[in-house]
Amino acid sequence: MHLIVVPQTHRFSEPLPLQSGAVLSAYELVVETYGQLNTQRSNAVLVCHALNASHHVAGLHADASGQPVPRSEGWWDNLIGPGKPVDTDRFFVIAVNNLGSCFGSTGPTHTNPATGQPWGADFPVVTVEDWVNAQARLLDAMGIQNLAAVIGGSLGGMQTLSWTLQYPDRVSHAVVVASAPNLTAENIAFNEVARRAIVTDPDFHGGHYLREGTLPRRGLRIARMIGHITYLSDDVMNEKFGRQLKPADLAPIGGGAEDGVALGYRYTTQEVEFQIESYLRYQGDKFSEYFDANTYLLITRALDYFDPAREHGGSLSAALARATAKFLLISFTTDWRFSPARSREIVKALLENRREVSYAEIDAPHGHDAFLLDDPRYHQAVRAYFEHTVAASLSGEATHG
Amino acid sequence: MHLIVVPQTHRFSEPLPLQSGAVLSAYELVVETYGQLNTQRSNAVLVCHALNASHHVAGLHADASGQPVPRSEGWWDNLIGPGKPVDTDRFFVIAVNNLGSCFGSTGPTHTNPATGQPWGADFPVVTVEDWVNAQARLLDAMGIQNLAAVIGGSLGGMQTLSWTLQYPDRVSHAVVVASAPNLTAENIAFNEVARRAIVTDPDFHGGHYLREGTLPRRGLRIARMIGHITYLSDDVMNEKFGRQLKPADLAPIGGGAEDGVALGYRYTTQEVEFQIESYLRYQGDKFSEYFDANTYLLITRALDYFDPAREHGGSLSAALARATAKFLLISFTTDWRFSPARSREIVKALLENRREVSYAEIDAPHGHDAFLLDDPRYHQAVRAYFEHTVAASLSGEATHG
Q1: In chain A, which residues have their Cβ closer than 8 Å to the Cβ of B204?
Q2: Cys-Cys with B335: which of A2, A351, B296, B368 at CB 3.0–4.6 Å?
């Protein structure tokens, strides 16, 4: 029995003031929901997405004849659905595509009403706080005042944390996975190299490539390759690829030396030699076909800017004093992008404010990507938290569909 | 009293067979030497350079009038020179620029005798083993049979290790700093992204940019930025740059929101916001002005290909059985490019062969770059090794100049 989902578009005509000072006069948000809102309207769970994800979190999409599209599962389908750790038989789960995205909600590929042309680089800078404000308006429109929980991984975890600071009265529980209270200099550095690869691609045209009928695919490929390296652990890359060579489709290039042939090397600087190169090129190519370059810039900047401690003189403890939610934090030992130490900073700051916090540090080999994977200890931690802690604070039982 | 050095060019007309099967029919090597060869010809020390370095290891260059050029110190001037840890009052130090480089020895910016055009992408692939063979011929030409020591960091450490395998009878001591027995999948991945940035730059022209009168500066900038991130530790980047903003030269861009102004953000996706971005862009710009793109491809490939265990079924212990030198290995705790674990693999394989090995794991904050810096514990370890162990095995005392 498949969960078939249909995205819905919500239009907003009340202008949204952004942190930068810009104002978005009207916008759309694309949303999916799973499960049913109970009569007390108390069982809603909001899912916040990370860099290259969308509102399509769980279930399958259907084709025109109503048949499920193979391999169209949502990006967190292993975690969220009927009987899953975030159980949609019990919770009403809402997933929203963020402003600035290229997956449906208003973003740089849409038409700028002021010019009649695609927004491109003129799309205003959006922050984690702006996204949370837009999500709160969506909930207003849906008639939902309180969230049983907000959950997100990576950049989604930053939105989750920000919800507890911007709307402390509306969030009962916050589940923050593989996240951080801000980016380190190294994190910003990787984002900046990726952005420079995009911006310096001659097909970028200052961000107005759609007007020019081009796409900065070269830059997007490089950006994705860099990103991909930082999502994986050194260990998992060694296990998966190690120093394996790509099998030769053709006779060895420039072969002849007995040594060389024995080693299996083709001795080439521009062609693929190792499997890891082939994998990264494939990931880069695929990404460059579907992702918007301006969206990449906007979302990496939202990551860079997020820093709730900033307006509190760098004190995360002072920043988190506003939060009243109960927290579950989860990190993964081999995640070097958002290491366990970063999650522990949040745990410490919450404990200094005497908040209720659970923390699970999962010994997983997969690096940052672990938050998307089906690790039994990780999923059990989420399941237990939703079954016992989140469910216990619902004012009544969920209706079943 | 300054050490003034003058590089010298050695020409070789005997063809050099390369590991790839190609043959370099004639070539030049640019060399600097420091100190004096003793009468027993027993005090020679060879220095092998890493990715973007050269034969200019120590001392200063002079201008036309013989005056020292300010800030022209060699790249390992803090370690090598009169009275320094590798003491040129005692040892005759030889530094050679490798084939394929862009700093003087025959490389892709030189003329291909077969075409009368710059070699460009047609320059043959060179390996660590090829470099060592060329260095050995240089020593033959200089009348030096035995090296008191070979020393190198990073890729230079790989050459040092390879010397003990290719010419075990000619090396008494090997000093391998911040190196590895091969690259991991992650190391190769970073090299590959850098290469793709170069190769996909429209100004690369398949590697024949010199013929076209262009330079792939965009790609080189990205390559250098990626490299730079991997040379530094997360800690040192946080300490040096953290989340500091670049001071505004101008009024804030798009400012107006009170929040934004209070946070000091300019809210821009394409301009510099953080200091770390400014630093990386500067490093990338500088590098793209002096480094050759084909050299970058060749040298990163030499790193990728090095793997002495490969022809021994992956057994490093079997590979190192040929080595008869005594070893000093040094690693740095925060080096995540070539972590201490990689040096320990070499130590373990040498011990399995009952070789004499000293190993120092230096607790230094600077990441891979530490091998170029003036850390007292590191320098003391090198000094002690040369003063006591290397000097003890000289057959006589060095003459003084």
Answers
A1: none
A2: B368
